[in-house]
Amino acid sequence: MKIVVIGGTGLIGAKAVALLRKKGHEAVAASPSTGVNAITGAGLYDALRGAHVVIDVTNPPTYEGDAVMCFFRDATRNLIETEREAGVQHHVALSIVGVDRMEGNAYFAAKCVQERLIAASPVPYSIVRATQFMEFLGTIADLSTADGAVRLSPHQFQPIAADDVAAIIVEIALGLPLDGTVDIAGPERGAMHAFIGTYLRATRDARRVIADDKATYFGGSMAENSLVPTGRMRQGRMTLGDWLDRMRLTDTTTA
Fold this sequence. Notes:
The protein is of the alpha/beta class. It has a single domain (2-254), classed as Rossmann fold, CATH 3.40.50. It is 38% helix and 19% strand. It is built from eight helices and twelve strands. The protein has helices at 11-22, 44-48, 65-86, 106-119, 137-143, 162-173, 192-202, 240-254, and strands at 2-6, 26-30, 53-56, 90-96, 125-130, 145-146, 149-152, 156-157, 180-185, 190-191, 208-211, 234-235. The strands form three sheets. The chain has a seven-stranded parallel sheet with strand order 2-1-3-4-5-9-12, sandwiched between helices. Strands 6-7-11 form a three-stranded mixed sheet. A two-stranded antiparallel ribbon has the order 8-10. Helix 4 (106-119) links the parallel strand 4 (90-96) and strand 5. Helix 1 (11-22) packs across helix 6 and helix 3 (65-86) packs parallel to helix 4. The chain is globular. It holds the Pfam family NAD_binding_10. Residues 7-172 form the NAD(P)-binding domain. Keywords: NADP. This is NmrA family transcriptional regulator.
């Protein structure tokens, strides 16, 4: 089966491509670096021609509000139109748990527009909403730091490892289209500040973590369950401890 991964050279995309090839499928890693640009449409039809499934895990080069909105709106419109022309049978898109439950977060607003465009498309689709990646914990801490302290929400958090995200997306891509949405999350749930505090201690980062009920998430106001599934979900297998152990092993191996 030919499967095109839009964003196939990024964190999730590269893992998905490797898994698909291991399973014997023709996996195409499509990104600007491989000559495929979903924004301009360059190389898109040639990449999608003959594909059964498209997996979209793209991310914009900037997180500025208007630019993010333009990126997801324009790229998704191009993908949908090209998929229709190429006869693609299943569109799988990666989104975010709680994307429709947080005001003030420009990235989430843009993802909501992307989801609506996909749902209105004639191509059967699956939208996979993931919680925050464990690989993103350091970035969250950095962007929440002021005066040497990390101010984070005490509300619920359930991060998932990128390996688990890729594995679940591949499983869904190889199955029947859902024409709907599925939430995926890691196996552990707790306070955001506690999870990221554990990460910082494990990485020997001395910054002080402060639980702040008024802390926002990239400009978005948080409630208790803003970033976690509130209904049925599929869970990854890797705990934060497992992931940290793997990171330490990787660091030791590559040192």
